[in-house]
Write a structure and sequence with these properties.
- The protein is an alpha/beta fold and 339 residues long.
- It has two domains: 4-215, Spore Coat Polysaccharide Biosynthesis Protein SpsA, Chain A (Alpha-Beta Complex); 224-336, no CATH class.
- 45% of the residues lie in helices and 18% in strands.
- The protein is built from 13 helices and ten strands.
- Strands 1, 2, 3, 4, 5, 6, 7, 8, 9 and 10 form a ten-stranded mixed sheet that branches.
- Helix 10 (281-297) packs across helix 11 (299-306).
- The longest helix has 25 residues, at 254-278.
């Protein structure tokens, strides 16, 4: 069995996918690289096939009709033979020194009989247009270098979210939780992280800057105007997260329950901010409906989200409230180095 299966969802990625693939190849026999050609209309499929010919023991290729990022992640998971599964988007890459430590750590955990459900590592925003690098780490939340359960979580900081870039999940655990991401939908990375969390019984935080996340490519889904144009897809993901679990009725560790509520609050605030920033009455109505849906679904969850620090700031009354919410969103955007 391979140690890690890396899935690389690719759609018209021929001009930059090579850097991603080359960064993963040094894993050698420990890994498999599953390149998912998601109905590309350029030379992506040819490049993927070329790597498979040159590295037949490491690289496999899936050619499929276009179904979006979630569909490609699903296809990669179905084909994965590694003990662990990680998604690396085709315009991103991994750090070589951190990569070595990730492989060493996973080997150590497996050899010691303590293979964890989730390996957590740092990631770095690489905003090439401004030569800006922003390191996102998890030291404030988790102890370093220990096998822990959720009860070992140090703090729960609102807005401090685990993202797809930072997780490597145990493959069988992902399958046991029944993870299937929706097709033709952006922002499903939040579901990829959120849905498996109640199934994660053990985790390990390795303090290395493993994943390098590229920001600034034209058409990237995190740019503000594109997020506004895709607000319905953001809302779809938000609703799926709401419907996935009733967090107050589940038998969860208190740390995990608080964290999942915080994560849900963050995504709901993002949905609200997109609606406010758009200044579109239709989008504002969609945001109001989202909050109404949460209230009708579960009043305890609604109170937590609505009256939390972030949720409260997005629900200030009237035009002044929306104005201040947009200003707060803009400030946080600059601080975090987005777009």
């Amino acid at each position: 069995m391979k140690l890690i299966s890396f899935a690389i969802p690719c759609y018209n990625s021929f001009s930059y996918m090579g850097k991603c693939i080359e960064s993963l190849l040094p894993g050698g026999d420990d890994i498999e690289i599953i390149i998912v050609d998601d109905g590309s209309m350029d030379n992506t499929g040819d490049i993927a096939d070329s790597y498979a010919r040159h590295y037949p023991d490491i690289v496999k290729v899936i050619h499929k009709e276009n179904g979006g990022h979630g569909s490609a992640v699903n296809a990669g998971l179905a084909a994965a033979t590694g003990m662990y599964y990680k998604v690396v988007d085709s315009d991103d890459w991994v750090d070589p020194e951190a990569y070595k430590k990730v492989l060493e750590t996973l080997h150590m955990l497996v050899d010691n009989g303590t293979p964890v459900d989730m390996l957590l590592t740092n990631y770095v925003y690489e905003k090439v247009s401004t030569d800006q690098h922003r390191r996102m780490f998890y030291g404030p939340l988790f102890p370093k270098g220990e096998v822990i359960g959720w009860d070992g979580m140090k703090h729960n900081i609102r807005g401090f979210s685990i993202l797809m870039h930072s997780v490597t999940y145990r493959t069988e655990m992902l399958r046991q939780c029944g993870l299937v991401l929706p097709e033709h939908t952006f922002y499903v990375d939040n579901l990829f992280v959120y849905i498996p969390l109640p199934y994660v019984k053990t985790l390990y935080y390795l303090d290395v800057d493993f994943y390098r996340y590229f920001i600034g490519r034209e058409g990237q889904s995190v740019t503000e105007q594109i997020m506004i144009s895709r607000i319905d897809q953001q809302l779809r993901v938000n609703y799926l997260m709401i419907d996935a679990y009733n967090l107050y009725e589940m038998d969860l560790d208190d740390h995990l329950r608080k964290y999942m509520l915080s994560y849900l609050e963050t995504i709901t605030v993002v949905s609200s901010a997109i609606g406010y920033v758009s200044h579109d009455p239709v989008n504002l109505a969609k945001v109001k409906e989202l909050w109404r849906y949460i209230k009708n679904k579960d009043t305890r969850t609604y109170r937590h989200l609505r009256y939390g620090v972030m949720g409260g700031s997005m629900n200030l009354p009237g035009r002044l409230g929306r104005y201040l919410s947009v200003k707060a969103y803009k400030v946080s955007q600059r601080i975090m180095g987005f777009n």
